[in-house]
Amino acid sequence: MSAGWNTIESDAGVFTYLVDNLGVKDVQFEELIALDADYLKQQSPVYGVIFLFKYPTGEKPTDIPKDGTFDFGAAENLFFAAQTIQNACGTQALLSVLLNKDGEVDIGSQLRDFKDFTGAFPSELRGEALSNSELIRDVHNSFARASPFIDETQRTATEDDDVYHFIAYTPINGTLYELDGLQPAPISHGSCSFFDFPEKVIPVLQRRIERYPASEIRFNLLAMVRDLRIRAREIGDNEWLVREEQKRTAWQWENALRRHNFVGFVSEVLKGVVRGKIKEGEGAYERWVEEAVGKTKKRIEEKGKKGAGEAGVEA
Prior knowledge:
Blueprint: H1 12-21, E1 27-31, H2 37-41, E2 46-54, E3 69-70, H3 89-98, H4 108-118, H5 123-131, H6 134-141, E4 163-172, E5 175-179, E6 187-191, H7 197-209, E7 220-226, H8 228-235, H9 238-259, H10 263-279, H11 284-304, E8 313-314
Helix pairs in contact: 1-9, 8-9
């Protein structure tokens, strides 16, 4: 990986092992398949949620948020960092929750040192410190998909790109905050206790989604919760514990695949297939290529109709 920041996916397995590699203890992420407060409560304790959405690139910044109110004085009592570099917003969003939960969550010595070091900084300088943290950047980049063709760290989004952005929602000091590094300050959405969070955050998310056309479905929502294996052990549910362990095994396998470069393997497979088509006789290779092109176009059309599990380009 280069010295910049690469794009990572909005994936529960990616985020869980990302924070684990940063030294955080007993935290995992769960993908939420419904905007339902009762469903979110079932994951309790919930420390916050990470929301991925298509960023409106043509939208002009305003002095007043579309929902909630800017709380410029909140930075003195919580961790808020301005986003100063592309592709870092996923990790920045989860850190916006974690670094405001020190005491509720064991964030580990390295993140605690970073929080203490940047505690007196303004949000812009905190963002610079985060962007230049070798530890955080290296762990973040270790979960990026391997690509020998595109250097995500040097790529700037264009008007033709679908640009996605991560933000965080979490209760801090009795207030529900929206923490978005592209905004000038934390956004307050009113009073909210730790236990009220599921009921208070769902309407905020629903209002945000309603700003988009009904045809827009490219959203992703991850909840930061306590390691579910702990609760399974506490209540003696061995079947649940086995499912959670199997989930972890699958996440580790998927994360290993993300880091692997399959170009050499695919090249050898294609060589073998082409040799086989040529042996089939005249025109077999051309027909095979035409059929493959048609299938690829169909898959691209189908993919465009589905949600955004991966942030193609981050704001």
